[in-house]
Amino acid sequence: MTIYQNNRIIETEAAGQILFPGSSKSSADPVRAQSDSGESPYTGYAEQTPAGRKQEMPYERFLSCGAGSLTNAELLAIILRTGTREKSATQLSREILAFYDSGATDLSALHRLTKEDLMSIPGIGEVKAVKILSLAEISRRLVREQAARRLVFSSPASVADYYMEDLRHLETETAILVLLDNKLALLREETLSSGTVNCTLLSPREIFLRALRWGAVNIMLLHNHPSGDPTPSRMDLEVTERISRVGKLLGIHLIDHLVIGDLSYTSLREYGCITDRDPVPDSGAEWTQEEPVPDSGVELTQKEPVADSDAAHAERKQRDPVPGSDDSGAQQTREDRICGTGEAVIFDTD
User: Fold this and answer.
1) What are the residue ranges spanned by the domains of the chain?
2) Distance (Å, rounded) from C-alpha 103 to C-alpha 270?
3) How far apart are CA 243 and CA 333, in angstroms?
4) Is 3.40.50.970 the CATH classification of the domain at 187-267?
5) Of 320 and 278, more confident
6) How far apart are CA 132 and CA 123, in angstroms?
7) How does pLDDT run across 32-85, given as a tens digit for each residue?
8) Which ranges constitute the DSSP H helices of the chain?
9) Are 270 and 259 in contact (CB under 8 A)?
10) What is the pTM assigned to this prediction?
């Protein structure tokens, strides 16, 4: 794309070269180029109206007042360098920032834009689009490098900070699996799936196949909510509980599942969805009627012991009489007999 100023060609984006007013020289590096008059290359094309009247000069304001005095659009205009015959670089920057939300001025829009989005704006060619996307990637990496210094996988807050910039700008739900060793050191991270705007599919089978392949002892899950609200859905809770149960059986522990919103997150461990209890009752657990004996269909309870036969009862009394009873054969209640002999849980087959 060719840019004109005062009826002179000053930039051809296809070639990436600049021809400054008053000079017959071109340069692929405009910062180092100088006009014949010795004028700064930036001063030579300060933003002007189509009539040629100076209107905004972000570069000069940066030098005289500092970066803090410039708006987001003016800072972006310095990166763009030039506008079109109809729009200044600052006006073009404002149009970029408001691409998704009319009137918006925040820089977060840059993370959502694609090269195709940018090139659909009149005045933005491939060169400018690449510059803008590179700027967005630099900002993302700066944030992540800072968060990496505080990253501790036992701390949900530090993990959320580390992955926040990668996930909060996405427009579809994306799940990340973090594989850890027994000391919670990072082995590998993998993207599991990218779903729709409100749903992503997590397969326990796929999760644990990857964990076993890389020898992980602990795992952590993260996924984003494009709406920006990190409140877990019913499906989030159900899938997390299922993965946690399967992991305990395999000896691979689910440390946490984080739902990432817009500068916010929810830890499903802190939410109460993940616990450290055993997946099945141990030997001291209390069996209830909700858990049948395998292959028998018989339910277990502690309420109703099985009555002894008369012969067995007489033999028991003769071998181990109950303290306090006489020889007259007085009957003892079933509950007293259990307490006196120390019998364990009784099977009820009635």
Assistant:
1) 2-138, 187-267, 283-350
2) 38
3) 47
4) no
5) 320
6) 13
7) 443 333 333 343 344 444 444 455 589 888 999 999 999 999 999 999 999 999
8) 58-65, 72-80, 89-97, 115-119, 126-148, 156-167, 204-213, 234-250, 310-319, 334-341
9) no
10) 0.56
CA distance 274 to 193: 22
Q: At what angle do helices 156-167 and 126-148 cross, to 10 degrees?
A: 180
Summarize pLDDT for 228-270 with one digit per residue, the tens: 999 999 999 999 999 999 999 999 999 999 999 999 999 999 9
Lowest mean pLDDT among 12-26, 108-122, 263-277: 12-26
**Kind and range of the H or E run holding 309:** none
**DSSP conformation class of 348:** -
Q: Is 12 helix (H, G, I), strand (E, B) or coil?
A: strand
Helix, strand, coil abundance in the chain, percent, nearest 5: 35, 15, 50
**Which of 177, 201, 181, 200 lies closest to 189 in space, CA to CA?**
177
